[in-house]
User: Fold this.
Amino acid sequence: QVQLVESGGGLVQPGGSLRLSCAASGSIFSINAMGWYRQAPGKQRDLVAHITTGDSKTYAESVKGRFTISRDNAKNTVYLQMNSLKPEDTAVYYCNAGIRGYGTPIKNYWGKGTLVTVSS
Assistant:
């Protein structure tokens, strides 16, 4: 059973920083692309950042220059460093990854989410 577990969310003041982590565990043969999405109350879930196995990165326009995605393949973990946070960054942040198990095809997995609240 493969799981993605996010951590690092919380309450932060505008202009502050947070670092989210997402660790994959279970019977994992390989991990393809990984990403972070977010969903604000009453809105759809949107892509925040995406990183491939070749370390190619994509960001939503609204977070470019403020957020940085990275991954540690040895730890099966993806990170999201969030700087200069704004109230509009408030949302539940979800981790996503394409993971191949032993003898199984690639499946798309989601974490349960971690809440980030930016408020004074």
Remarks:
- The mean pLDDT is 97.
- The chain is about 0% helix and 55% strand.
